[in-house]
Amino acid sequence: MDEFLDDPLAEQDDEIARLTAERDELRDKWMRALADAENSRKRADKDRRDAEQYGGSRLARDLLPVHDALTRALHSATEEQRAAASALIEGVQLTLRELSNVFTKHGITIIRPEPGERFDPTHHEAMFEAPVPGTVAGNVIQVMDNGFMLHDRLLRPAKVGVSSMPAS
């Protein structure tokens, strides 16, 4: 019996089994580390792309009221005011056009809903509902403010009134 205890082949088999298990464990750790490194690289690449596309969203959001104010100023000017201050009106138009060009250059698009268009909760914010004759429930009846998108992300929804006309 004692000769089996000191069997060098049994010791070698034990050593081979231990080394194989250690190799398998190290291979598993290496594969996990490799996968983690690849995931980190992909995440960093996505973060970099997002920063390039959406990094200026706070500045863009802060400029939206400027666009709104210039648009309102142009829409509120009467024909008499336009005639009396044509250079001023032209300056406001040029400023608004330049701001729109900057928006376009940076991927900002304007959401301009039209009355009669179907209300879309992903791009519109309902400010009120009213039963307006001759309209269809769920359609836009009035636009208070345009909305804005930055590439594929909503910066600000368009503010609209929606018809609640019951079906007749």
Write the layout of secondary structure elements.
Blueprint: H1 2-5, H2 8-54, H3 57-76, H4 79-84, H5 86-105, E1 108-111, E2 124-130, E3 140-145, E4 147-150, E5 153-156, E6 158-163
Parallel strand pairs: 2-6
Antiparallel strand pairs: 1-4, 3-6, 4-5
Main sheet properties: 3 strands, antiparallel
Strand-residue fraction? 15-25%
* Dominant shape: elongated
The secondary structure category is alpha+beta
Portion of residues within helices: 55-70%
* Spatial separation of the terminal alpha carbons: 101 Å
Q: Could you give the order of strands across the largest sheet? A: 1-4-5
Mean pLDDT: 92
Any low-confidence stretches, pLDDT <50, length ≥5? none
Radius of gyration: 33 Å
Protein traits:
5 helices; 58% helix; 3-stranded antiparallel sheet; alpha+beta; 3-stranded mixed sheet; elongated; 168 residues
Describe it.
With 168 residues, this protein is of the alpha+beta class. Helix content is 58%, strand content 18%. It has five helices and six strands. Strands 1-4-5 form a three-stranded antiparallel sheet. A three-stranded mixed sheet has the order 2-6-3, with no helix packed on it. A hairpin with a 2-residue loop joins strand 4 and strand 5 (153-156). Helix 3 (57-76) runs antiparallel to helix 5 (86-105).
